Amino acid sequence: MPHKVPPIITPDTAKTLLEGKTRVSLDLGLTETTVNPTKTGWPLPGGETVDGETLRKISEKENSAYFVESGDVFQVAVAGKHFYKLVPTGRAPTLEIDGVRMHRTSGTTPDQDTGTKLDVLGLDRGRVLDTCTGLGYTAIESARRGAELVVTVELEPQVVRIALMNPWSAPLFTGEDIHKVIGDTYTVASVLPESFFDYVIHDPPRHDHAGHLYGLDYYRRLHRLMAPGGRMFHYTGEPRSRYRGVNLQRGVSRRLREAGFTSTRYHPEVMGVTCVR
Asked: Contact at 8 Å (CB) between 12 and 61?
């Protein structure tokens, strides 16, 4: 069954419709469609209608996305132990957790940043482990570039719920070569087959949210499951960023070498380290 995402309305979309224009994007910029107003409002693909008052309210919001279901309007967001929401960027949206964006959006967009990271990694076919799924952009782009197999791991079911509502994430749920796992990548890495993956993309949450994913024991687990000569990209952030007085990038590089990796190199354009198994 095809994966279907409802029409998504952003503040910019609402403003465009209220200005009397009829060509808008209802999938966060992937395509455009024509929406002609009627006496009762603006009919959307799929049978829902949005009225002028609702559009005006949406137009006054910032950094949010909405959908209509059974006549009611909902934000693309999930509240649990954290607050997760989809944030438009002009291209691929980002995921925001408790107000912190999970992708780089300054001077780039999440999809462009993903492509640059895979360029730095030199991904070319092979088997790929994506340690932290998020909205799935890494897994999707790896498959698009010819990876024969992608295993992607996500800890939070709420993040998957947001991805299911994101048009840019649709290939994550339709790609036959993308295998999704719900769980802690720290645990999952210990049970994956030895010397199996040619590439690992490790783009974890911040150190203060997931410090165990920056530790020597976890790096040893990744080393075990990678094929000889395999390459890893590890996002670290700015090299001068400090966590309790520690240079994070320098410490990551040192622990990677202790785990058995070689050729560690920091890439400022993507704020991450590459290394070789």
From this structure: no
